[in-house]
Amino acid sequence: MKFFESIGAAWDPLTITVDQVDEIGDMVVGVVRADGVRRGGQPAGYGAAHVFRIRDGKIASFHEYVDADAAIA
What is the mean pLDDT of the chain? Predict the structure, then answer.
């Protein structure tokens, strides 16, 4: 939860668009696009894949794989 709070705190506003969500074994994978304005006033955006590993019905781990070709300035 702290990870997501820190991401939100760096943007004003931040919009996450979910392109696709799939369940693969014990993982849930989401392909997303994040766009917004950084706290300093600079517009930015990036694409990413979010991978959640599920154990006993709860999130056990989370990894974000960011589009390296569209790095945040």
Answer: 87
In single-letter form, the type of residue at position 19 comes to D
Pairing of strands 43-55, 11-24: unpaired
36: amino acid identity, one letter: G
Regarding pTM above 0.85, the answer is: no
The string of DSSP letters for the chain reads -HHHHHHHHTEEEEEEEEEEEEEETTEEEEEEEEEEEETTS-EEEEEEEEEEEEETTEEEEEEEEE-GGG---
CATH of domain 2-70: 3.10.450.50
Q: Can you give the residue ranges of every domain in the chain?
A: 2-70
Which residues sit opposite 41 in a β-bridge?
none
